[in-house]
Amino acid sequence: MQDKVYKSTLHRMTQTTPTVLWNDSCSTEELTYSIGHGAVGATCNPVIVCSVLKQEWDAWKPRILEIIKENPVATEDEIAWKLIEEMSVKAAALLEPVFEKEKGRNGRLSIQTDPRLYRDSKRILLQADHFSKLAPNMIVKIPVTKAGIEAIEEATYRGISINATVSFTVPQAVAVAEAVERGFVRREKEGKDISTMGPVCTLMVGRLDDWLKVVTEKEHIIADPEIADWAGVAVMKRAYLIYKAKGYRLRLLSAAFRHHRHWSEFIGGDVVISPPYLWQKRYNASDVTVENRMDKPVDPAIIAELEKKFVDFRRAYNENGMKAEEFDGFGATVRTLKQFCQATTDLIGIIRDMMLY
Predict the structure, then answer these.
(1) CB 321 within 8 Å of CB 314
(2) What does the mean pLDDT of the chain come to?
(3) Which residue(s) pair with 109 in the sheet?
(4) Per the confidence metrics, is the pTM higher than 0.90?
(5) Superfamily of chain region 11-355
(6) Stretch 17-33: mean pLDDT
(7) Could you tell me the sign of the dihedral formed by the alpha carbons of 165, 306, 228, 273, in that order?
(8) Where are the chain's structural domains?
(9) With 80 as the cut, is the pLDDT of residue 84 above it?
(10) Dist CA 239 CA 257 (whole Å)
(11) C-alpha dihedral over 23, 27, 30, 35, to 10 degrees?
(12) What's the 3-state SS for 166-233?
């Protein structure tokens, strides 16, 4: 009997392990490539929209002008979010066949709530409710801030599948899982269905690595130069063990790729990996083998040095390292929220220039 022929390394992973692939972009060209290699999900946010506009300006410019004309009294903010919604709906349509086949577990387009709302659970929830109705296969990104945790529970109770974002640590991952579980239990007690919901909790593994490298320079720390590149991997694996032990009914998702371990170390886990298009092409061209590495612990010596040298790694790695009240002030959270908010401002600036030409 002949072995099955696989299109690529990522295709082999999606066909032979529980690990699934989502595309970290809503670009039609990039998502089409990713689906061809086994992807069953995708994402959109202001950062991604700015990137897509740079790549596909000739295609989107006339449509933006039409949106402006169709909404004569809309503000530049409102036009920007209409554009985000339209890109998201267009990408969601490409994933609907998977969504129907997998009954909601996969086949979803992740759309991000306005990052500037990170302190306001009520407004996050209002936007999440609106986004969830844009297409049957939407999943809504909510930041793992103190207010975000409140919104995650309530959104789950309302039947909205969430993707927890701006998340880097085990305490955040556990807080998300507990909030989702509370939402599920409330629905179940009222006889409401949860079988077609597909929540995930993102861990932005590369952004934790980035933050520890910033700390290294700020605090003049001497450590193994490669050690920070294991921080996100260690957190993801620790969170995965906790999720399995406690039976949480959502999956972890790996994002913010900086090197191949942010993919290869998670192969074999019942998790989602969500690399951008260019990282997918690099993985497919690599000689990294598809084998179960999720169950292989990070070298204890690496963990020991990270814990010894970095207070923020201890906060990130230990289940009780932070309380929800501390999430908003964590270094990686602050840096990421600033970037996401700036990208929103940049997108609004593009719209402003088109409205006031």
Answers:
(1) yes
(2) 96
(3) 42, 138
(4) yes
(5) Aldolase class I (3.20.20.70)
(6) 96
(7) negative
(8) 11-355
(9) yes
(10) 18
(11) 50
(12) CCCCHHHHHHHHHHHHHHHHHHHHCCCCCCCCCCEEEEEHHHHHHHHHHHHHHCCCCCCCCHHHHHHH
